[in-house]
């Protein structure tokens, strides 16, 4: 008997229901290998596009995941592989190049890299139009009707910004968001979930509590999950040789997929 069937039997569930649950399918996450998507330029934005296979796409035809990267952007292999994992979960997934070919260096601690200058050059006035162009491409050229944002560190803030009124996305997930403002939380008009790291200078426990309170005030469905033994960045750049970090990274991914599946297909 397969493990899903055993699980179903123990819980008294119909087997078909239990085995169709994507959350139990651990083969959709890839931590290593070659990206399967491709980069294309649309609306003057370079986009990494990862397509589900036909069977999976048929099950989720009108929805897409808009993947908003950390400061390392598209050159970081883990970003492309994680976008591919969302495609294997059935979602057409597009990650725009948020930095117009000029992402942060591999390690923001390298001498000479000025993080405050980098962030000052990539504020909402620069980044919002790139994301808006990507949403326009998804909706107007690909006919996508519902969009989920998933954002990591730098991109987490934008995952929230784009479920505000009239911004074009419907549901959001953010792992360890950086610089997420109170006003940006209060402005959400769709469900929002967060995956938080135990050790995160950008979101220490007191800030996490504030964010939870603001989510309550925003009056939208929300979920905040805290992963022990993890640090800022774990949703993308975890050391997957360490079982604790691997669990956190996969947990954050499945948390996002379940969140999107629930609000799009429940
Ligand atoms: C296209 O994007 C580049 C930045 O990557 C920008 O400098 C340029 O002005 C844009 N062109 C148009 C026509 O929007
Ligand atoms: C980093 O950039 C900021 C402006 O964004 C500037 O004020 C500061 O002097 C720079 N630091 C260094 C070490 O160059
Ligand atoms: C990753 O985790 C493994 C297992 O805990 C450890 O042996 C290794 O040193 C870690 N690698 C880095 C770069 O921290």
TrEMBL record:
Any Pfam family hit: DLH
The residues the entry assigns to the signal sequence are 1-20
Query: From the Swiss-Prot or TrEMBL record, what is one GO molecular function term?
Result: hydrolase activity
Which keywords belong to this entry? Hydrolase, Signal
Recorded hits in InterPro entries, A to Z, give: AB_hydrolase_fold, Dienelactn_hydro
What is the name listed in the Swiss-Prot or TrEMBL entry for this protein?
Dienelactone hydrolase
Which residues belong to any copy of the Dienelactone hydrolase domain?
61-261
**Stored PROSITE patterns:** PROKAR_LIPOPROTEIN
> Mind telling me which SUPFAM superfamilies this protein's record contains?
alpha/beta-Hydrolases
């Amino acid at each position: 008997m397969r493990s899903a069937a055993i699980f179903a039997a123990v819980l008294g569930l119909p087997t078909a229901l239990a085995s169709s649950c994507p959350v139990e399918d651990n083969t959709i996450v890839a931590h290593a290998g070659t990206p399967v998507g491709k980069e294309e330029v649309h609306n003057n934005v370079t986009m990494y596009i990862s397509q589900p296979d036909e069977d999976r796409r048929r099950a989720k035809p009108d929805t897409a995941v808009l993947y908003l990267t950390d400061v390392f952007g598209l050159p970081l292999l883990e970003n492309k592989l994680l976008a591919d994992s969302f495609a294997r979960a059935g979602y057409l997934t597009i990650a725009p190049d948020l930095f117009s070919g000029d992402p942060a260096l591999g390690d923001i601690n390298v001498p000479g890299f000025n993080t405050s200058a980098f962030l000052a050059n990539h504020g909402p006035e620069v980044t919002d139009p790139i994301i808006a162009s990507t949403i326009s491409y998804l909706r107007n050229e690909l006919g996508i009707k519902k969009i989920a944002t998933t954002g990591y560190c730098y991109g987490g803030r934008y995952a929230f910004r784009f479920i505000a009124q009239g911004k074009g996305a419907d549901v959001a997930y953010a792992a360890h968001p950086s610089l997420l403002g109170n006003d940006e939380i209060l402005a959400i008009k769709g469900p929002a979930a967060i995956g938080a790291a135990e050790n995160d200078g950008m979101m220490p426990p007191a800030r996490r509590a504030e964010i939870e309170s603001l989510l309550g005030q925003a009056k939208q469905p929300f979920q905040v999950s805290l992963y022990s033994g993890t640090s800022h960045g774990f949703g993308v750049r975890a050391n997957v040789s360490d079982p604790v970090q691997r669990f956190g990274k996969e947990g954050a991914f499945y948390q996002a997929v379940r969140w999107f599946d629930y609000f799009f297909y429940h």
